[in-house]
Structure formats: structure tokens, C-alpha cells
Amino acid sequence: MLIDPSPGMETFVTESNQSIMETYVIKFLSILLTSGLRYFLLAGIPFLLFYFLCRNRFKRNKIQSREAKRTNFVSEIRNSLMTILVIAAIASLVLFTPFRKLTLVYDQLSDYSLWWIPLSVIVALIIQDTYFYWMHRIVHKPRFFRKVHLTHHQSTNPSPWTSYSFDLLEAILENMILLILVFILPMHPLALMSFGLLGFLINVYGHLGYELMPRGFRRSIWFQVLNTSVYHNLHHKDFHGNYGLYFRFWDRVMKTEHPDYVATYDEIQERRFGKDSLVRSGWSRGTWLLLLPLMLCSFSGSDGADRILGKWISEGENGKAVVRIYQADNGKYYGKVLHALDAQKQLELERKLKEKGKESLSILKGFVHAGNSTWNKGKLYVPSRNLQVSGQLQLMKSGKLKVTGSYFGVSHTYFWTRYQQ
Ligand SMILES: [Zn+2]
Ligand SMILES: [Zn+2]
Q1: How many whole angstroms from 82 Cα to the centroid of ligand 2?
Q2: I need a surface site. Which of 59, 103, 185, 221 has the fewest CB within 10 A?
Q3: What's the pTM value of the predicted model, to 2 decimals?
């Protein structure tokens, strides 16, 4: 039997619901304000510094020579407002609603050791990197790209404002990681906040448009493990390769790292610090021990196979040319002629390419790293004879690349040297 509530009771229930609603709204607005402030301060200050106040001072750090467009900044900020709203909604759901009881979020610092707070932040970043890599690969598939990821890629020359510039669907997908983390990792709200802050700071650095890594970074093991601003910038510039968020791990394992990454990074650091900055030195024993687990994780790309990547001066019967060796998605090594060193030969090259309707001349195809500084099973194209022959590459101790191909029963050997600009 239904009993009508007394008038007094009705008022009590309504008031109580109203005050709960008010609390939710206030908490939601406070988190909205916090994530908004975080965006405008942490992206705004670097933007002011690098794009206005200290622009000339950081000229050498600039990754792409062209300037980012003002109209881009406006649309990036407009898109980011939507992302801030999504972040506030997901964070409020996790922290301020009864949903929180279902999660592993804990309030008492004494529930876990204090060291778990920083460690949980690092573990969360590693989990996020894995989630991001695979989500990113999926949204790059042609059937999803336009609907989900195109907005972020409208910035081919990113700025700090690009950090949150997403389509609504991508903003939700990106921030779903918070919902995943709270179910698999016990985290204190302090750790959650630090995770959000650190993640955003790295994100701003990745989209900064300027490389800031110190000189010694190239020689340290961290270079093998962590992403840089150049890393993500290449992804924006070329739309493919370098899908990882914080670490090089997944790109190296899945062979999706941009073939120009190391050469481009070296070019910029060389401009900042001179050639010495790139010389590899031995790592201290302490670093080895400290980073052994990370090194084990990133073993797949550090077998020396990448020493062949980058620009070389080829020497053949057709004169000297600059060739870029890169690793394709299939893990094999290829080489393309960028330009001839002699102006006359360059004109000839351009004419030949035009005749064949090709964009570039490929002269190394499908080489496989066979260890011992050798790459074989590939094809070598000899332009002067218009021949494609089996070839072998060997990196000499002197730093030269020995390129061997046999045709007409005779073995021909060329020595290529590193291209220094
Ligand atoms: Zn992308
Ligand atoms: Zn990006």
C-alpha cells in the first residue's frame, strides 16, 4: 500500500537532494576551474616565453623552421575548452560521486607506504603510455582518423596550446585512462593529482615546438627510453611513426619509430651545442644498475641496428649524393637519395624522376640487420647502369659504410661517409 509522504517529509527529502546536488555542482566547478587554470597557466607561460618574450633566445631550439600560425592557436584553445570540460566530468565522477567507493582510490596515507605515492605515479605513467600507444594506433586507422583524431593533427607545427586540442570523442578516449587506473592501481588523490600535473607538463613539452633536452641527454640511457619534443613533433609533421606518449618502448618493439627521429634530434642538438654533444660515451656503472629494468624493457631497439640510420654521402659512378637510410614499418632498412651534391647531377636526377613520375630515387631496398654491423638480403640499385642487384652493407670501425653489390660477375664496393651539414 502506498502512503503519501507528509508535507514536512517531502520538504526534507527535496532539501537534502538539493544540497547534495549543490555540493556536486560546486565540486565539479572547482575541478573545472583547476583543470582550466592548469591548461592556461602551464601552456600559457611557455607559450609567452617561447613564442613572444624569449623567441630570439631560443631560435636554435626551434624544431620546425616555419612559424606556427596564429589562427591555429585560436582554434587549438577553442578545442581545448571541450577537453577541459571532459577532464572535469571524468575526474568529478571518480573523486566526488558514490562511484568512488567502487575504485581503489584510498584516502588514508597510512593505507600504503609513503613511497608508493611517487611509485604509483610512475606506474600510472607507464600504464598510460601503453594505453595511449595502442589507442593512438587505432585512431590512425583510416576509418577512425577523420572522426576522432583529425582535430589534433590539424596542428602540423604544434604549440603548447595543441596539448588539449582534441575532438570530443578523442578527449573522452584520452581521459578514459583515469577510469582504468582507479580500478587497477591503488592511488591516493595526491598521486592522482601529481599524475595529472606531470602528464600535462610532459604533454606541453611534447607540443612545445622547441627542443629543451640538455646536452648530456643524448649520451645517457634516458635517450634510449624517453620521448623528446622532437619525437612528438615529427609525428605531427608527418602523421606517421612515433605513436608513443612518454617512452620509446612500444614504437621500438612494434617498429613504428619515425626513421628520421635520431637524425633530426641530432641535427637540432648539434645546432645548439656543436658536434661534440653527439659523441657517445660510456655510461656510468650507477646508471646501468639503476636503469637495468628499463633497459631490459627497451632491449629490442638497442642492438646497434639503428647506427645505420640517418644521412650518408653515397659515392658511385654517378657522383656523390646524400642518401637517407631509414627503417620501414616492416623492420627492414631502405635508402632514398635526398639530393645530388653536384648541381648538374641534381638537375639530371630531377629530370629522371620527372620522367618516371616518381618523387624520390630509392637505392637501398629491404636490408635486414644480420648482427656484426652487417645488413644483408637487400637490393642495391645502381643508377648509372639502371640495375638492381643483391647487396650488402657493413658499418666499418672507421665509421664508413661499406656498400657491396655484385653485377656482371664482379663485386663492386663503395664506401659511404656520414653526411655532416
Ligand atoms: Zn596521431
Ligand atoms: Zn600531439
Answers
A1: 16
A2: 59
A3: 0.64
